[in-house]
């Protein structure tokens, strides 16, 4: 059994039985037996099941948002946003799956002999989907929706911190028409994730930290399983000297502190041109200081608790390390007393890359702002990281932004925006931020394998 704890109150929400090796083996065998049948259903039937899932999400969104807020601590308005935005993702997959996996005839030669060359996309089989808690609807559905639509079975392990949401997702998919054997939630913590990787699966899609992702990739490599990894980031934003300071500061406060900074693509470090550094920091600190920290069920709350208690210590250590190396604490810097895993929105200046704050993922409401003298220095610092998920540039000059972003080694480039994901664009990463692609047409094809047909009429 493991316990689901409310991170805002530290109260027990539920106790759930974990999957063990035997139950997992049975689940996997059932998925293996059922998957060929699912792959043979008409695509229209699978599309209908996912459409119906979307309707059920919409109909029950308030109750689902409250469950998400209770177990993860996400402010209720942000939980509602996540559920609302699911409709766009679902619509994208419904619209594009057929074209993405339709047969491609690449040669028809009249002969003799008559020759046709064709590519047909077949499902992978069973996809193990090990997911994260920070956006369980988004990061889960990036995998399980296209996987299901393309004819795969999915064994879905939500993070232990988002298990109630994971179980709710499974119920809605089943109610929508996805057979129970084809989508199965796996309940448990990291140990259940490890056991899942030992099962007879064909692919593993993992969202989580670099450290665990590497372990997952190593386990998968031993069996040559396909692997797709969405990992961490240390995403930079650079504010040029020609911006409207207040607007850029407001946007970046949102990018750094939304979901208490627990977004894979949260802004994790800011570089600001020296000419506007003082007014920018002033505006940034004013905005960040005005954020309402507190009960995530309260409509006014902007910043809720962290989902995981252990992260409080990581943030405290980053603050202490930065201050000991000469950083200046402009705001926050400590956890909140009382129940719940709350950390005050925290801003540090006079920071540099000797500090863990500017190099290691924070995954919390904390940000360092470093001055730079010119664009060249900003590019060098943005690239001085082991991660490569996203990067943002704020400037009134689009060509300046494009010049800078073209040189940054990251999977997504933002001009005058940040912390943004689109179902139409590939979500992929460089370096330690991940492997492979989800979202976009390329992300649908992640879940199929091509078969090359050589058809000759003698
Ligand atoms: P973890 O790496 O700790 O866990 C991720 C998932 O893996 C969880 O379901 C976890 O289970 C499971 N797990 C843990 N150990 C193992 C193991 N040995 N084998 C198999 N599975 C295992 O990450 P967090 O949950 O802490 O998520 C935060 C991280 O995720 C951040 O680094 C963040 O950047 C990244 N992330 C990246 C995204 C992206 O799109 N690039 C999106 C969202 C998050 P359990 O939780 O039950 O222990």
Q: Key features?
A:
alpha/beta, globular, six-stranded mixed sheet, 458 residues, seven-stranded mixed sheet, 22 strands, 42% helix, binds NADPH dihydro-nicotinamide-adenine-dinucleotide phosphate
Describe this structure in words.
- There is one protein chain.
- The chain has 15 helices and 22 strands.
- With 458 residues, the chain is α/β, with parallel strands linked by helices.
- The strands form 6 sheets. A 7-stranded mixed β-sheet has the order 12-13-14-11-10-16-17, with helices on both faces.
- Helix 12 links the parallel strand 13 (346-349) and strand 14 (366-372).
- The longest helix has 26 residues, at 76-101.
- The radius of gyration is 23 Å and the shape is globular.
- The chain starts with a strand and ends with a strand.
- The mean pLDDT is 97.
- Residues 130-134, 139, 157, 159-161, 189-190, 193-194, 197, 207-209, 212, 215-216, 230-233, 264, 361, 363, 389, 434 line the site of NADPH dihydro-nicotinamide-adenine-dinucleotide phosphate (NDP).
SSE blueprint and pairings:
Layout lengths: L1 E4 L6 E5 L4 H20 L2 H17 L1 H12 L3 H26 L2 E6 L4 E10 L2 E5 L5 H14 L3 E5 L5 H14 L6 E3 L4 H8 L5 E5 L2 H13 L3 E5 L4 E5 L5 H13 L9 E7 L3 H13 L20 H15 L3 E4 L14 E4 L6 H4 L6 E7 L2 H9 L3 E2 L1 E5 L3 H9 L5 E4 L11 E2 L1 E2 L2 E2 L1 E2 L1 H6 L2 E10 L1
Parallel strand pairs: 5-6, 5-8, 6-7, 8-9, 10-11, 10-16, 11-14, 13-14, 16-17
Antiparallel strand pairs: 1-2, 3-4, 4-22, 9-20, 12-13, 15-19, 18-21
The chain binds NADPH dihydro-nicotinamide-adenine-dinucleotide phosphate.
The site of NADPH dihydro-nicotinamide-adenine-dinucleotide phosphate has 30 residues, from helix 7 and helix 8.
């Amino acid at each position: 059994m493991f316990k689901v704890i409310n991170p805002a109150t530290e109260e027990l929400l539920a106790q759930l039985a974990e999957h063990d090796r035997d139950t997992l083996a049975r689940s996997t065998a059932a998925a293996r037996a059922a998957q060929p049948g699912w792959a043979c259903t008409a695509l229209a039937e699978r599309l209908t099941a996912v459409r119906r899932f979307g309707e059920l999400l919409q109909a029950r969104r308030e109750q689902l948002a409250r469950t998400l807020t209770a177990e993860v601590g996400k402010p209720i308005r942000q939980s509602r946003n996540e559920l609302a935005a699911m409709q766009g993702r679902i619509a994208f997959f419904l619209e594009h799956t057929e074209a993405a996996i339709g047969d491609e005839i690449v040669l028809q030669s009249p002969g003799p002999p008559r020759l046709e060359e064709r590519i047909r996309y077949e499902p992978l089989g069973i996809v193990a989907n090990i997911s994260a808690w920070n956006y369980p609807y988004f990061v889960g559905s990036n995998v399980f929706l296209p996987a299901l639509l393309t004819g795969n079975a999915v064994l879905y392990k939500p993070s232990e911190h988002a298990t109630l949401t994971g179980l709710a997702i499974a119920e809605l998919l089943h109610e929508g028409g996805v057979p129970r054997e084809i989508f199965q939630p796996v309940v448990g913590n990291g140990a259940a994730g490890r056991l899942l990787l030992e099962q007879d699966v064909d692919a593993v899609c993992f969202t989580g930290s670099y450290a665990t992702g590497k372990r997952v990739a190593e386990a998968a490599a031993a069996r040559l399983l396909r692997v797709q990894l969405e990992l961490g980031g240390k995403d930079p934003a650079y504010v040029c000297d020609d911006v409207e300071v207040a607007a850029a500061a407001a946007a970046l406060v949102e990018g750094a502190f939304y979901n208490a900074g627990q977004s894979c693509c949260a802004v994790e470090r800011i570089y600001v041109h020296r000419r506007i550094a003082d007014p920018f920091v002033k505006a940034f600190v004013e905005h960040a200081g005005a954020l309402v920290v507190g009960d995530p069920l309260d409509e006014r709350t902007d910043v809720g608790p962290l989902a995981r208690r252990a992260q409080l210590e990581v943030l405290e250590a980053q603050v202490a390390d930065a201050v000991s190396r000469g950083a200046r604490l402009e705001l926050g810097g400590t956890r909140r007393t009382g129940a719940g895993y709350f950390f005050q929105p925290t801003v540090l200046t006079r920071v540099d890359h000797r500090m863990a704050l500017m190099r290691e993922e924070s995954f919390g409401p904390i940000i360092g702002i470093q001055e730079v003298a010119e664009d060249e220095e900003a590019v060098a610092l943005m690239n001085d990281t082991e991660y490569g998920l996203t990067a943002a540039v704020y400037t009134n000059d689009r060509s300046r932004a494009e010049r800078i972003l073209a040189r940054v080694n990251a999977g997504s480039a933002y001009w005058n925006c940040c912390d943004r994901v689109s179902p139409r664009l590939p979500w992929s990463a460089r370096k330690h931020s991940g492997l492979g692609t989800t979202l976009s047409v390329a992300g649908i094809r992640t879940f199929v394998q091509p078969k090359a047909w050589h058809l000759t009429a003698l």
